[in-house]
Design goal:
The protein is of the alpha+beta class and 88 residues long. It has one domain. 53% of the residues lie in helices and 12% in strands. The protein has a two-stranded antiparallel ribbon with strand order 1-2.
Length: 88
């Protein structure tokens, strides 16, 4: 999650058994969901529509409200993580 503002937006975070945070960037998540949906829809000849739906499925996660939700639900500070990434 370096300088690309889209990759700085998170789809999910999780904390492992050692207390380390693992971030799943939203751009990666949307692309993966789109490809998975396209694979399923290929059986009925609609992979392009399904890929598009997959890419759009979580666009609301680009909002500041969603980042506040991640923070309140997990304790993960999205903004501190972004600042740390910029300093590296």
């Amino acid at each position: 999650m370096k300088d690309d503002p889209l990759s700085a937006t998170l789809a999910h975070v999780r904390q492992d058994e050692h207390g380390n945070w693992h971030e799943h960037p939203l751009d990666e998540h949307l692309r993966a969901v789109g490809e998975m949906a396209a694979g399923f829809a290929a059986t009925f000849e609609a992979p392009n529509w399904a890929r598009l739906a997959g890419l759009w499925c979580d666009l609301g996660k680009y909002s500041a409200e969603f980042h506040r939700h991640i923070n309140s639900a997990t304790g993960f500070d999205c903004y501190a993580s972004q600042q740390q990434d910029r300093q590296q």
